[in-house]
Amino acid sequence: MRAIFTFLALVILSSSVLSLPSERRDSDSTLTEIQALNFALSLEHLQYYFYERLHHYEPHDFSNAGLPPWSHGRYAQISSHELTHAQFLENILGDKAVQPCTYNFPDTDPRSFVKTSNIVEAVASSAYTTLAKYLSDPDYVISISSIHSVEAKHSAWINADVRDGAAWSTAFDAPLSLSQLYTIISGFIASCPSSNSLPPVNIFPALTFPSSVMPGQTVQVSFSPAAPKRDSQTLYAWFISGFKALVVPLNADMTVTIPDTLQGFVFSVITNNKESVADDATVAGPAFLVFDYDYHGNDQSLPM
């Protein structure tokens, strides 16, 4: 798999962007099958409890927000899928199964609900792409692959039918490391039961971009908690899209120019290494970015 990443990460870019292979070493390389399945279960718990928030809204709330009123019913179906996934994994794991956490989701209206669902499903698709490499039991591989295909359908439906965007980003989903994935997930978690064992991952500082950014723009980013004093160290902003990873220097004033070739779902990570987006080089992120495009392939701006 690493050979695939290395081959597909070789890209030809303008002189302002460094064209380098991405070496994606994970800090979670010793993950057991039980830990991998519990990571999936943790994600399914989070998804189910997020979609339970659908009860805060009625179909007419979606209609009043300019969204298809029938999308409320489709979201209810997705919620039932996530519950089924969680119950399925709990049945496999038995008394080793992790319990749901207490969550803190940012949605306050139907539009922010849709925006959050987009992040949740994008992370799910990436997670199941990554988890497959930790499984050796054929039954587990088939189960995880089956769940993955449904999560990908959820993501495609949200983007195509609800957001009026493209149902896909590139020819491949981005296989983030579990530390990168958990960093995003942790932003929705307030606390977890003490009986839950934390997966062997790092949680990196949150990386924030301004809202409504577009490819080609120069924008200022921030870390939370704030990054230590940089001194003369050069940092780099990586933009991961499918199997491709583009890298540009992060300027001293924390500004970065977003590569103008990016489209669809993009995960940005700040590292201290211009040749690696691995966990041991990560300073902050990932941040989840969406660069929408129309059926001609031209950039477009959608409200969610």
Structural account:
The chain is 37% helix and 16% strand. The protein is α+β, with helices and mostly antiparallel strands and 304 residues long. The chain has a four-stranded antiparallel beta sheet, with helices on one face. A hairpin with a 2-residue loop joins strand 6 and strand 7 (244-250). Helix 4 (71-93) runs antiparallel to helix 6. The longest helix is centred in the middle third of the chain and has 25 residues, at 138-162. Residues 1-23 have low confidence and may be disordered.
Write the layout of secondary structure elements.
Layout: H1 2-8, H2 33-51, H3 59-64, H4 71-93, E1 102-103, H5 110-131, H6 138-162, H7 178-186, E2 189-191, E3 206-208, E4 218-220, E5 222-224, E6 235-241, E7 244-250, E8 255-257, E9 264-271, E10 282-291
Helix pairs in contact: 2-4, 2-5, 4-6, 5-6, 5-7
Helix-strand topology string: HHHHEHHHEEEEEEEEE
Q: By helix and strand content, what is the structural category? A: alpha+beta
Portion of residues in helices? 25-40%
Number of strands: 10
Mean pLDDT across all residues, rounded? 86
Distance between the termini: 34 Å
**Fraction of residues in β-strands:** 15-25%
Uncertain stretches? 1-23
Supply Rg. Answer: 19 Å
Biggest beta sheet summary:
4 strands, antiparallel
- Shape verdict: globular
Q: Could you give the order of strands across the largest sheet?
A: 7-6-9-10
DSSP summary: helix tally: 7
Main features:
alpha+beta, four-stranded antiparallel beta sheet, 7 helices, 16% strand, globular, disordered N terminus
